[in-house]
């Protein structure tokens, strides 16, 4: 039976504006126990995504201040996203190919949900997809020289 992301996604998604600070983004993550926050502009359109890892590697490790705008550390180009009517199998394949654990679900440019690899894994009919995606995502990359 084919199932779409709209049926398994988390629809209560916390977002942050691109002009807000990294400290505010980290506070949202800490308060809600999440590791990723979609970034939106004043119109609510998704413009990027920021992860706890982005904050660490693109700001803290570079000596950037906590008041640095989110736009300076977020991933903005080619953010992988899905639609609510996308098939779960297709989403799992996309997550595997792109090596991502969380997939924003967007409709008309607005964030409407988030699907995590765990959301797919908890449904027994998607065990193989979740296992394949995790295997690809967890493949270690070579250290940078």
TrEMBL record:
| InterPro entries recorded | CBS_dom, CBS_dom_sf, Diverse_CBS-Domain
Query: SMART domains given for it?
Result: CBS
CDD domains hit by this protein? CBS_pair_HRP1_like
Q: Which domain of life is it from?
A: Bacteria
Give residue ranges for domain CBS: 9-66, 74-131
UniProt entry tagged with the keyword DNA-binding = no
- Give the UniProt keywords, A-Z: CBS domain
Know the name of this protein? CBS domain-containing protein
Species per Swiss-Prot/TrEMBL record: Virgibacillus natechei
């Amino acid at each position: 039976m084919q199932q779409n992301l709209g049926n398994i996604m988390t629809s209560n998604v916390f977002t942050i504006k691109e002009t807000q600070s990294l400290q505010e983004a980290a506070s949202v993550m800490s308060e809600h126990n999440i590791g990723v926050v979609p970034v939106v502009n004043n119109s609510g359109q998704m413009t990027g995504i920021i992860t706890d890892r982005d904050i660490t590697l693109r700001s803290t490790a570079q000596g950037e201040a906590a008041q640095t705008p989110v736009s300076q550390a977020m991933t903005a180009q080619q953010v992988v996203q899905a639609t609510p009517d996308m098939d779960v199998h297709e989403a799992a394949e996309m997550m595997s190919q792109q090596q991502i654990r969380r997939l924003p679900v967007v409709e008309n440019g607005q964030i409407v949900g988030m699907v995590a690899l765990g959301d797919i894994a908890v449904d027994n009919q998607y065990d193989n997809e979740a296992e394949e995606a995790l295997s690809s995502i967890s493949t270690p990359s070579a250290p940078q020289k």
